Amino acid sequence: MKKYMVVGGSTGIGLEITKMLAEKGHSVVVLSRSVGGLAVGGRLAHEPFDAMAAPPSFPKLDGPLDGLAYCPGSINLKPFHRLKPEEFEQDFALNVTGWVRVLQQYLPNLKKSPQASVVAFSTVAVAQGMTFHASVAASKGAVESLARSLAAEWAPGIRVNVVAPSLTDTPLAEKLLNTDAKRQNSAERHPLKRVGTPRDLAEAAVFLLEPTSSWMTGQVLHVDGGMSSVRAL
Ligand SMILES: NC(=O)c1ccc[n+]([C@@H]2O[C@H](COP(=O)([O-])OP(=O)(O)OC[C@H]3O[C@@H](n4cnc5c(N)ncnc54)[C@H](OP(=O)(O)O)[C@@H]3O)[C@@H](O)[C@H]2O)c1
Q1: Does residue 188 fall inside a structural domain?
Q2: Mean of the pLDDT values across residues 154-172?
Q3: Which of 28, 61, 116, 170 is 20 to 30 A away from residue 67, measured at CA?
């Protein structure tokens, strides 16, 4: 049995990661503002945490941590001329600085594991230029390059990888999928003709967290229905 932390494990992809890890018999501590869909108890614990608090207050954690997934993120889509500089800063604070703070806080615990793994989330809009994605793409680009830097700095003891989703059916994407027409159009835009499920993304994240991926670090896994790499002619 290993010990994992899922920051943002109360809804969406993080909740699915948490459930999968617990089902595999691991112990999981979730940090988020609400309990959301979590069934806390047994091997599954929840600690209140706000990554945007200045500064956040961190729950104390003793002993080794074998893996950490950082799931908070934003989808703030606007034409560039309507994006205020403060919105870029907020997206960066949640996606990048929040992750930095969490890693600096729990690095001593990760170092105590013989082989720890860290996973964060990017977006398909980093590999592909997409209209209205300027702010989130700028932050998630930083997530990917930070992950590669840390993968270099922390090898061989701690692996660091990223999952880059396309549109996935979670509370974060609710506004983009709240009518049949939107859902259908979104599905059609993907070469694999559907949007992602939380499970699609959690499978990739859990693979990266567990020793099954023990020879991978500094990678970005594109789990995006073919969006970043395939074109129909
Ligand atoms: N869904 C998509 O279409 C999509 C596409 C591309 C990339 N992504 C990325 O995938 C990742 C997971 O997204 P998701 O769709 O699963 O999102 P989600 O359903 O909104 O879940 C986000 C999780 O993060 C937590 N969280 C949000 N703000 C927080 C804060 N300030 N402090 C602490 N926890 C916070 C939320 O819990 P509380 O509200 O309880 O705090 C929740 O558990 C994100 O990084 C997102 O950018 C998603």
Answers
A1: no
A2: 98
A3: 170
| Domain that residue 156 falls in | 3-169+198-223
- Tell me the residue type at 151: A
Q: How far is the CA of 97 from the centre of ligand 1 (A)?
A: 15
Q: Is 172 in the pocket of ligand 1 (CB under 6 A)?
A: yes
Domain count, the chain: 1
Q: What is the pTM of this model?
A: 0.98
Res. 173 pLDDT band, cuts 50 70 90? very high
Q: CA-CA distances (angstroms) from residue 109 to 4, 62, 116?
A: 11, 7, 9
Tell me, yes or no, whether 63 lies in a domain: yes
Q: Is 143 in the pocket of ligand 1 (CB under 6 A)?
A: no
Instruction: Kindly give the distance from the C-alpha atom of residue 68 to the centroid of ligand 1, in angstroms, as a whole number.
Output: 15
Residue 229 lies in a domain: no
Evaluate: CB of 173 within 6 angstroms of ligand 1.
yes
pLDDT of 15-61, one tens digit each?
Answer: 999 999 999 999 999 999 999 999 999 999 999 999 999 889 999 99
The CATH number linked to 41 is: 3.40.50.720
Contact 7, 72 (CB under 8 A): yes
Ligand 1 center to 14 CA (angstroms) = 7
